Structures are given as C-alpha cells and as structure tokens.
Amino acid sequence: MEKALINTDFHFDGQKSLYHGKVRDVYNIDDRLLVMVATDRISAFDVVLPKGIPFKGQVLNQIASKFLDATSDICPNWKIASPDPMVTVGHRCESFPVEMIVRAYLTGSSWRDYKAGARQICGVPIPEGMREHQRFPHPIVTPTTKAEQGEHDANISKEEIISRGLVSEEDYAMLEKYALQLFERGSQMAAKQGLILVDTKYEFGKKDGKIYLIDEIHTPDSSRYFYAEGYQERFDKGLPQRQLSKEFVREWLMEHGFQGGEGQQVPEMTDEFVKSVSDRYIELYERITGEKFVRDESDDISERIENNVKNMLARL
Predict the structure, then answer these.
(1) Is the CB of residue 151 less than 8 Å from the CB of residue 97?
(2) Which terminus of the chain is more exposed, N or C, with fewer CB under 10 A?
(3) CA 123 – CA 156 distance, rounded (Å)
(4) pTM summary value
C-alpha cells in the first residue's frame, strides 16, 4: 500500500495553536495566517475512519486551490499560496458559525429526508412528487450549523440564523449571493468536463470587515458530482446515478451496518477498499480539472511538508 498521512504535529515559527479537524490540521501563525494541511484522513457520518486514503489530501488540496483561483473574481478568498501539494497558506479569518449548502438535485441526505416525509429543507419548500436525483427548478441554499468535534451538523433556516444572531441579515444576504454565484461557476466548470455539480458546501469568514470564502471548495469531500452522460437515461429508468463523491463511502458503510450511530462499529477497511477509494479520488481530480494527477510519492511526507511550509513562511 502507498503511504498515507494521518496526523501532523509541526512547530512553526510564530505558531499559536494547532487544530485537528476531521480531515485537516490547521496551524494558527501569529493570529495572522493559517497553514491548512489536508491529511489523508477520511470521515463519514461525522466519524473519522480508522485508515487513511493515500493521495486523498493531495487531491483535496489541489482541487480546492484550483477552484479558489478560478473563483477569486466572484468572492475574495483566504488563499495566499499553496507551498506543498497537501498545504494551503492563507489569511486567518473569523469564520461564520454556519455552512452554506447549495443543492441543485434532490439526492443524498435531502432525498432521505424527503422520502421520510419532509417537504421542506431549512425552511425551503420542496415540491410534491419529486423523485430521487431529480433536478430542482433552481438551486436552493440549505444552511447548516457548524458542528463541534464529535457532534453532527444540523439543518437551520435563514430566518433562525438571523433571529439567533448567528449572522446579520446584511451579511447573510452576501453569503447567499456568493454561494449561488460560486455554485454557478462550479457548475459551468464541471459541465466542461462532462460532470454535473449536484450539491456542495461553502464556508465564509470575515477579516477587517470584509467577507472571505474560506476552507475548501468544490472538492469530493465538500461536493457531489454526477456524470452528465447517461444522467437522463438513468433518471428515467429509476437507476442509481454514476457519481464521483464521498457518497459511495457512505453507501459502503451503510451496507455494512454503520451510520455513525451509538454502539455501531466501523467495518474493516481492507487494503482493496482503501485503494478503490484512493482511485476514486484521483479519478475525480482528473475529471474535474481535466489534468493528469501527478502523485507526489515522497519517502517522508511530513518532512517534505515541514520544509516547504517553513520556506514559505520565511517569505511572508
């Protein structure tokens, strides 16, 4: 098996704190910069799975980096540079306590809720008579709260976000506007590669009174893609869609009796399964970017990252 980077514990000049997220390790440098390392950890149902996925961090970081550059005319973003295949360095912003989910199709968790009888998501009404994987008349924004470690994200309506003072009405209007414009750009870029951007999430923060797009964007961890070819035929026949996303990992876990519930055990991740997940991530990279994925096969991934980041920080 190829190597996978599961954990990091670097000590950079000016480092004030280190946060281990589900997938990313985030280093605060002088309350001014963030060094975000995309590890090879993988999570599903808000649980970090026991094995890492080789090249997953590189895939996520490089896709996010590409899309941050490709959307900077729509919305300012936090990225300053990507000094390593698995790292982005950028502005430290105060993040908003909500995530902006944009959905163009009734699928995944929204379909599961709909099938169970829900006819609105986050206060947004959903028409009767819809089928799985059906396109909405227009993309909808369905925000969630940002979960603390070990907790689940929770759906929340625009009205509740504003009434609870989580985001001001003025700022929320900008977040919604940016999210829909970013989704439109992502959809256009996906279409050029024969893909459909089905749904995705965006996170935003503020620095010096200005709203920035932060974290990842349009990656397989934050987004779901269908293959455009065959979509309509499969939909008409009620067949599952061919998709490039993390949903296949969730489906594999559910087939093996795991949905993150109390007392449930994560099924054994065989080397064959881990390789298949890695291959799917690489396939998505090549499909969405139109570029060949170049594997960085360093003998010591941690040492490479540490050297590249230290050299970058010395210049900032």
Answers:
(1) no
(2) N
(3) 8
(4) 0.89
